[in-house]
Design goal:
Layout: E1 2-7, E2 10-13, E3 18-26, E4 33-39, E5 46-52, E6 57-59, E7 67-72, E8 77-82, E9 91-98, E10 103-105, E11 109-114
Parallel strand pairs: 2-11
Antiparallel strand pairs: 1-3, 3-8, 4-5, 4-9, 5-6, 7-8, 9-10, 9-11
Length: 115
């Protein structure tokens, strides 16, 4: 079993910053990586950023230069630093863990950006 608990969401004005955290527990050894996804109202869930097992990071085009993914392996915690937030970043953000054969999601944390 894998448990993922996100925190750090909230409401900010455009241009503001938030830092999301995801604490992972359970059987999380030897996986393929972790990621942040988001789902805005009426839209499909989309991949925002990922970090794989060798540390390679990827970012969705609209967040490049504004978001930074990182992890603290000692704390089994994944982070997403979000700067210069835009109204279009409003969504529920989900942490995900890939065991290489399955993808696990947390319960999500709401991020609301107002103009």
């Amino acid at each position: 079993q894998v448990q993922l608990v996100e925190s750090g969401g909230g409401s900010v004005q455009a241009g503001g910053s938030l830092k999301l955290s995801c604490e992972a527990s359970g059987y999380i050894q030897g996986g393929c990586g972790m990621a942040w996804w988001r789902q805005a109202p009426g839209k499909d869930r989309e991949l925002v950023s990922s970090i794989d097992s060798d540390g390679t990071k990827t970012y969705e085009d609209s967040v490049k230069g504004r978001f930074t993914i990182s992890q603290d392996n000692a704390k089994n915690t994944l982070y997403l630093q979000m700067n210069n937030l835009k109204t279009e970043d409003t969504a529920v953000y989900y942490c995900a863990y890939s065991s290489c054969t399955a993808l696990y999601f947390g319960q999500g944390t709401q991020v609301t950006v107002s103009s």
